[in-house]
Amino acid sequence: MKKLLFLVALILVGASQVRADEGMWLPSEILKKIKDIQSQGFKLSAEDIYSVNQSSLKDAVVHFGGGCTGELISGEGLLITNHHCGFGQIQSHSSVEHDYLKDGFWAMSKAEELPNPGLTVSFLEYMTDVTDEVLKGYKPNMTEEKRIELVAKNSKKIEEKVLKGKKNLKANVKPIYYGNQYFLFVYKVFTDVRLVGAPPSSIGKFGGDTDNWMWPRHTGDFSLFRVYAGEDNEPAPYSENNVPYRPKRHFKVNAKGIQEGDFTMVYGFPGTTREYLFSDAVKYTAYTSNPHKIALRTLRLNIQKEEMGKDQAVRIKYASKQASVANAWKKWQGEAKGIIRLKAVENKQAFEAKFDQWAQGKPEYEGLVARFKELYGSIEELSLVQDYQTEALNAVELISFAGRGQRGAEKFYKDYYMPIDKASFIALYNAYNKNIADKYKSPYFKEQLQNFGSVEAWADALFTAEPNLAMAAEIYEKTNAYFKENIAPTLAEVNKEITLLYRAYMRGQMEYNEATNGGKIFYPDANSTLRVTYGKVKGYSPSDAVYYTPVSSLTGIIEKDNPEIYDYNIPQRLRDLYAAKDFGKWEVAGSVPVAFIATNHTSGGNSGSPVLDAEGNLIGVNFDRVWEGTMSDVVYDPVVCRNIALDIRYALFIIDKLAGANHLLQEMEILK
Q1: Which end of the chain is more exposed for a tag (fewer CB within 10 A), N or C?
Q2: How distant is the alpha carbon of residue 434 from its chain centre?
Q3: Which of 21, 99, 192, 221 does the annotation list as catalytic?
């Protein structure tokens, strides 16, 4: 307990030194940061950000579908998130006859809103520190296995106690600071969520893979949904009798505009960050793992693009899949480049050398650095095998489908095109054969390759007129069984010790910081729980003699418009509106603002997050980061790390002028 109290004290010391633009803060702990937030221009209180006693900003924010964020913008359950977050739902309702990806979709009445089975939104009810309860019964001499069992047992008790006699709640106990602290998160989950509106992909995905992760950005990345509830305003399964949910809080929409230097706050569910990684892990990421994964996904993307360009039906089938593959592919490129440019590995090595010297004579920390190096060195080759298992062997659609027991067959075949999958099999399995050391290859893989003589001949046997599902299932079963029996156990055993070392290393870094006044910033890594980040609207300079201003406009869309290129072929209606200068009340300096950048520290999962002004009003919807700053999951650089947000005025313009869905605007409280 003394250790824990010391840790919390050190966290507060670190928090006092943090820059405004770095850090992902737990809302329940925001009182400790509120003075700094207010010094940056924020005009509300900590209680306005997070409260369990009254409605607060948190009550307008949802975990959308488990992987994105969304926010309520009306008292009738109207929700805005990113187009790419709702892409799967938009695609599922699309067909050649009703191509909502190409043409967009707008429900002109609530009766026209489309249900989405399986889609959920979760509101955080409250969060609380449960460290003492989770570690109740822990003894200093307890083995790690026993500690894991104890934590799991106590966490389950805590969750069950919360859920007892309650409906539609979800409870999760999650560790922060590598298990030095634990928090309970309790959510209310709604399952009736209907599609209300989405612009055409030529707006919602404008720029496609070319512009993804880049600035300037001109993407109208938004879609609209509505949360429905039972007559008691509580979650209920889909029913025609359900009514729009009446939220505790919804955001007012600020259409007055933003200026460089304005305060911004992002409130959302960032997925995963790894700010405290050891240097060897960062080195593997930048110099080995990312380059191999990028190469494998390049093979898949090239095949998909070629086939999608030939046939509209194939394009619809693979639109969501291609976006999913391309997203991480491009992010990994910027991440590796940023890590190398910032000399993150060398900087961490320098810190580790100083830490190692300080740790001499301290039993809890002495030898940590040497042991980290030994452990990471022992699994580097095996980690590459794991990357290829995921990104090559298991990335073939038919094999993955068969290996899952052919679950969801109707949905699988609806969006399946065999020529793409066959070409992917050939490219990926040849890459595995070339780049994985023979001693680590699946014996089954080697046997089949010898039997067929080539990967190409093997593909001919697998992808027949009727796909050979039995063979596909065998490939999945045999290659994964080998991995699970011969590679995974060693990885798991070593990673278990690495995880244990990180718990001690996290405490050690904080103690070292206190002892040396090192100025190190400490905030919990993201883990898909609700976080607050804050910063300012600000441009940046990515390279010599180049400076990017922080706001893009419709003029830039027209400059990029090209009917010959799918990703840049905007709707004719948008061209006509621009030519006529028919911008309505959304006009600014002869155009319409589209997107802006700010210094908020964001990550995957922040897609769809509300970007708020100093008074807690919605000014934008977060959807990306700049490419030069994608290493921010590992190392943050305030010079170039920027989040990219849709300017809410562009969404309002599209709803008004392109869709003619004025009834949706009437629901909102728009400040103009």
Answers
A1: N
A2: 32
A3: 221
What pLDDT, on the 0 to 100 scale, is given for residue 91? 93
pLDDT at 308: 95
Is 663 marked active-site?
no
CA distance 595 to 587: 14
pTM of the predicted model as reported, rounded to 2 decimal places: 0.88
Residue of 63, 84, 218, 292 with catalytic role = 84
Half-sphere exposure at residue 264, Cβ-oriented, CA atoms within 13 angstroms = 33
458: alpha, beta or left? (left if phi > 0; alpha if psi -120 to 50): alpha
pLDDT score at 18: 45
Give strand pairing partners of 229: 243
Q: Is 221 a catalytic residue?
A: yes
Are the C-beta atoms of 596 and 185 separated by less than 8 Å? no
Whether the Cβ atoms of residue 634 and residue 280 lie closer than 8 Å to each other = no
CA distances to 243, 294, 391, 438, 446 from 433, in Å: 56, 17, 13, 8, 9
Whether 94 sits among the annotated catalytic residues: the reply is no
Q: What share of the chain is helix, strand, coil (3-state, %, to 5)?
A: 50, 15, 35
Distance (Å, rounded) from C-alpha 71 to C-alpha 59? 9
Cα distance between residue 461 and residue 608, in whole Å? 44
Q: What is the pLDDT of residue 19?
A: 54
Decide: residue 668, CB within 10 A, 0-12 exposed, 13-18 middle, 19+ buried: buried
CATH of 531-671, one of 1.10.150, 1.20.120, 2.40.10, 2.60.40: 2.40.10
The identity of residue 428, as a single letter, is L
Q: Hunting for tokens 């893979």 — which residue is that?
A: 209
State the residue for tokens 């070339």. 434
Sequence ranges of the chain with CATH classification 2.40.10: 531-671
Residue-level pLDDT at 17:
46
Q: How far apart are the first and last CA of the chain?
A: 53
Dihedrals φ, ψ of 564, to 5°? -80, -15
The one catalytic residue among 607, 609, 624, 632: 607
Residues in the chain with pLDDT values less than 50: 1-3, 5-6, 8-18
Residue 316, both tokens: 């619809």
Side chain identity, residue 337: K
In the prediction, which pLDDT does 6 show?
A: 45
Q: Name residue 665's amino acid.
A: L
d(CA 127, CA 28): 7
